Each structure stands twice: as structure tokens, then as C-alpha cells.
Amino acid sequence: MVDLGELYQQTILDHNRNPRNFRRLETANRTAEGSNPLCGDRIHLFVHVDGDTITDIGFQMPQGAGCAISKASASLMTDAVKGKSIAAAEEMFQAFRDMLAGGTNAPGKLAAFSGVRAFPSRIKCANLAWHALHAALQNSAAPVTTESAGDF
Amino acid sequence: MLETQKLRRDFPILERQENGKRLVYLDNAATSQKPRKVLEAIEHYYRCHNANVHRGAYGLAVEATDAYEAARTTVARFVNAWTREAVVFTRGTTESINLVAGSWGRANVQRGDSVVVTAMDHHSNIVPWQILCQEKGAKLRMVEITADGRIDLADYGKALDAKPKLVAFPYVSNSLGTVNPAAQLSKLAHAAGAVTVVDGAQSTPHLRVDVQALDCDFYAFSGHKMLAPMGSGALVAKPALLDAMPPYHGGGEMIERVWDDRSTWNKVPHKFEGGTPNVEAAVGLEAAIAYLEHLGMDRVAEHEQELARVAIERLSQIEGVTIYGPRDHRAGVVPFTYGDVHPHDLATILDRDGVCIRAGHHCTQPLMRRLGVAATARASFYIYNDVDDVDVLVSAVRKAGELFGVPA
Prior knowledge:
Number of helices of chain B: 14
Radius of gyration of chain B: 22 Å
CATH class of chain A: Alpha Beta
Distance between the termini of chain A: 24 Å
Largest interface: A-B, 24 and 23 residues
Radius of gyration of chain A: 14 Å
Number of strands of chain A: 4
Mean pLDDT of chain B: 96
CATH superfamily of the largest domain in chain B: Type I PLP-dependent aspartate aminotransferase-like (Major domain)
CATH architecture of chain A: Alpha-Beta Complex
CATH topology of the largest domain in chain B: Aspartate Aminotransferase, domain 2
Low-confidence stretches of chain A: none
Helix content of chain B: 40-55%
Oligomer: heterodimer
Shape of chain B: globular
Distance between the termini of chain B: 38 Å
């Protein structure tokens, strides 16, 4: 049996308690809303893109609307993609998704979510922020939900 | 208290383990487990009596029809329905309420009318009325709740001042555990000229229901929350109302004569049971009722209320735990939050100890907004739960606190 510690790794507990980039970005030129209607998790993502580069990024979750996994995932994601190109961010998303689908670990701190694989009911929580980022980078105005994206 | 150790042996699923631990099933407000007697009744029906009902001229079809109609008589007795024809079999509470909205509602609610629901209603007793009101240009009025989780009777009175056509409310709240004064609410609504729809999803499995004493017009419930199979349930309604209502679904069985361009309708309740009915569900529901009646619904209610009392007492001793719902007049539903540990994380952590609870908005988003939370954790009890289960729950919650460092 997979231990709870595999899911709630220290990195995740830390980012849940002290989420990074947890703010509204007034200068954002790309935004997206993501939600998981089944559990009520909601994220507002704010991205500033300059040319091909994500120069700044922030997120908010309404009070109580994010579990530890979804909040920590959003926090680590924002750290990981800040300063990166759009293409690099999309690559990271792919690597993250592959990891949760049973593939090899995603690079860097994102590997902290490898334990989510053993908890299928929580995979959507980990993916939520990434789907919102994908939508923001596509500049898609429609809110994304974990029910409409299909490949959660 | 009920003899849970003995009862548990009747439930095969409770023998299985969850993550290497004894299964502690505390999500009974979502659905209940099924005793062997119910599983056997369904199997026996298919092994010995299966045929299509109400139409066969051969013995087997008569047996199937008899089994189906006997279940109707049992349901009628169980909730003290006006007549056995007052029981319309449905797939459950949701379909029952949609039937009322789609039939009675469409025939009687007009532009400018109002329909009343409460802020503690389940989505299944809100959304059908939203759809109806939007279609008709009627106004949907949501009655507020008090700080301690009851229907606000002052606001209820104000809503009735508008002379609504229909008033819908839950007998027992699935998110708060509140047992509402259904007879009083129905009486007040009738005095204002409205018909009443009682969502009985959380009351029928857990307390003695007497629809004639409640004097409601429509009473909806599901079988799967009361030991019966999924897809079982009924709408129980005053016969005169059912007689006057147009059909809901068209099809076989619900007709009297069919011409090229029109039809006349079968008698109630068949008028509302178009298509081949779910006979196994009815048979399973009858077996479930027999099981519950053997225990006695008063003892069932007492057992669950005692478990809720102990759970509230022991969870409250954990610093950072907030319990929702009223102190008294509550059923075996215990909604809570724990510091800033999100309910989904709580549910995952509890699952590792074999404890199944629900986490989320419980299909009551308007209520969650009023409580100021996005989600709660909810433990809900049934006949096979006991104080040991409460203790496993409480220690698992403490474990979650240690992992997340609560209180910070």
C-alpha cells in the first residue's frame, strides 16, 4: 500500500501552507479560470506574456476552494514556468501529465507529485492549474473545467 | 442501540477491507450498503419469476406483475400512503421531483407565479424548479436558513405571502442533518394556497415516515439510500392530484387506447410508469423495507441519532473542528471542517484508515455559499455503524491534523 507520505510530500505540504505567487496580477495579459465541478475546486490564473516569454504569473483560489494537492500544484507550477517560454511551459505540462498517467517523473520539484499516481481520485486536483495555464496560453476565453477537458 | 455486530454479518460488502483496514462506511447519506436479503430477493426474482409485467397472459407474467404490485403495497404501507395507487415507482428522488415539475408544474405554474424552495435543498429539489420557472416565466424564491442551520420560519412566512403555487423543502437536510418540521411547513404552505413537495431522500431511510400525518401533497424518495438497489424509488402523492395530472413520459403501459393521432391514459399510477418498469428495483425495495421494519424505524432513528451525538461530542474535542447544523432535531449526518485542511484531503487521509466519508458541496451549492465554505467533510451513519466506527473516524481526523500541522 502506498503511504500517505508519498502523496503529501513535504514539498507539497509546504507549498499548500505557503503558496508562492499567490496573488492577483494586475499586469496580466492572459487569464484563465479553472474549476473541478465535482469537488468545487476553483482557480483564477493570471499570466503576463511578453513576446514568447512568461514574464510573470500569479494565481488565486477562492477561500477554501483548493485542496492541498491543487493549491500546491498551482504554486509549484507558477514557480516552474516563470521566466520560461510558452513552448517550454507546454512541454512541462506534457511531462507532468505523462507522470500522472504512469510515466517517468516530471523534472525538478514537479516530481513531488509522483505520489498522486497512486491516488486516482486526486489526479484532477494536480492537473487543474496546468489546464488553466494551457487555456491562458491559448488565450482561450472559455473557463476550463476538469469535466470538459477530456484528458484529465 | 442496535446490535451492529450481528447486523454487519448481513452485509457482505462490510467483510471486505479497505487499504488493509476494516471498512468503516460513513457515507450513508450518499448511498447505503445492501443486506444479503435484498441481494437474494433480486436474484430470486430473476431466477424464478422474471417476465414483463402487466401484459402477459401466461402464469410467469402474472407472477412478475404480482411481485411488482406487492412491492407497491409494501411501500404504501411503509410511508402510510393514502392508497396503494398513490405510489408511483420512479428511479429515485430526482426522477420523482422532475415528474412533479414536468407534469404538475407545467400544467399549473404560469407566468408571474412563484415557486418556493429553501436554501438547504439538494440540487435535485432546486434545479427542476429553476428549469420550470425559466420555462414559464415564474419566479423562484429561495427561503433563507438560520445561523444554526434551520429553515428561517420568518423568511418562510414572507415567501408564503406571495401566494406561491408550490413549495418544496427537504424533510431532512443531506448537508446539515436538520430534521425540518415538515408537517408544520406543509400546513403553513397549504394555508397560503400552495401544494407541497417534500424531498424525503434523507428521511425515508432513517425515521418513521407518515405522509398522511405530514399532509404533504408530493413525497419523493430513493431506495438506494435505504438498503435497496440503485434505481429504485417512488413518488407518493395525493390520489386526486395524480388523477388530474398529465402524463410525464409517453410510451407503453401508460396508455389506455392509442389512435393514429392521439391517446388516452391508463389509470394512476400506471399513467406515470411508461415503459417496462424496474421490477428488480421494486422487489429489492420491498425486501429492504422488510429488513428495516424488522428492526423498527424508531429504533433505527434512535441508533443514528445516538451515533451522531457521540460523533459530534468527540469531534468537537479536537481543536480546530467546526461542526455544521443544529444542536438538536438532527439526523445521523455530521458535517464538519477541520482547520484549513481541505475536506478532500481529509477524505483521502481517512480513506487510508478504511473510513469512507464524503467531501465536497454535497449537491447543495446555495447552502455552501451561505455557510461560507466551498466544501465540508460529512460523516453519515446507518444501522451497521457503531461507536467503534466513530472512534476510528475521530482518530483518523486527528492523524490528518498531525500530518497537516493543525492547529498551526
